[in-house]
Amino acid sequence: MLKHTKTNNINASRLSQLLNELAVKISNSLGKLGERATEVPGLILYRCTAPTVPNPCAYEPSLLVPAQGRKQVNLGKTSYVFGQSRFLLTSLELPVVSRVISASEEVPYLAFFLKLDMSAVREILHTEEVHVLDATSGTSGMAIGVTTVDLVNSCCRMMDLLDAPQDIPFFAKLMSTLHHHFRALTAMTPLQFQKQLRLHAARQRMLTGEMDAASAAFEVGYESPSQFNREYRRFFGQPPMREIKALRDSKVVAITAV
């Protein structure tokens, strides 16, 4: 028991140290900028010195690790609040409303945002055993995870690539570590993952293209509109056109900003 407590204390201390290190690296890289798309493919850094108003936007498949401050992301009726001890993992392109809720000049919100390579994620899902959790887990396409030493260490090492651009083409091992966090949180079989991609693709088409449910179903690969309607209702909680109308009425419409 004492040994277990000691190990936890060591891990907590190491995690705090790495988060501080990551915050310094992000701050140094950004300077006074609020946002920077780095030379590392898919890596964007953010800095904010005050809470922000709610911002309707679209989140791509991505990993968002705050090194300082806290953020809130609303997906439908579900609210995700996360900060230094939690990270946000998004497995599909989703319309959300996001805002920074904790930030100041003295302690700004500093975040590491990495777009995920979905081809690599699919490869992991197909080649490695995945433990499927209960039916309520991993069904929204978005999840909060506990920040770990390994995860933040990978983020720090990726930040180091900014000081050694000649090494950027060789960061596959770091991406592998981050993609495994994706796999552990989504806990989906390849078939479940493919189904979610199709449902969200159809939803996006109906939201942005004035397409009816049957047309969207056929376009993303469904052969039966009735099967599409059943799976859509099971996943989103409402029939397709009713759910789309509710989204439009609430003005939660996807745009391309983060």
Radius of gyration computed on alpha carbons: 19 Å
- Helix/sheet category: alpha+beta
What is the CATH class name of the largest domain? Mainly Beta
Mean of all residue-level pLDDT scores: 78
What is the count of β-strands? 10
- Tell me what the CATH architecture of the largest domain is: Sandwich
Q: What strand line-up does the widest sheet have?
A: 1-2-9-4-7-10
Number of continuous helical runs: 8
How many domains is the backbone divided into?
Answer: 2
What is the CA-CA span between the terminal residues?
44 Å
Helix content: 40-55%
Poorly predicted regions: 124-139, 252-258
Which shape, going by the Cα principal axes? elongated
Instruction: State the CATH topology of the largest domain.
Output: Jelly Rolls
Main beta sheet strand tally, sense and closure: 6 strands, antiparallel
Percent strand equals 15-25%
Written as H for each helix and E for each strand, in order along the chain, the element string is HEEEEEEEEEHEHHHHHH
Task: Write a concise keyword list for the protein shown above.
258 residues, alpha+beta, Jelly Rolls, 2 domains, elongated
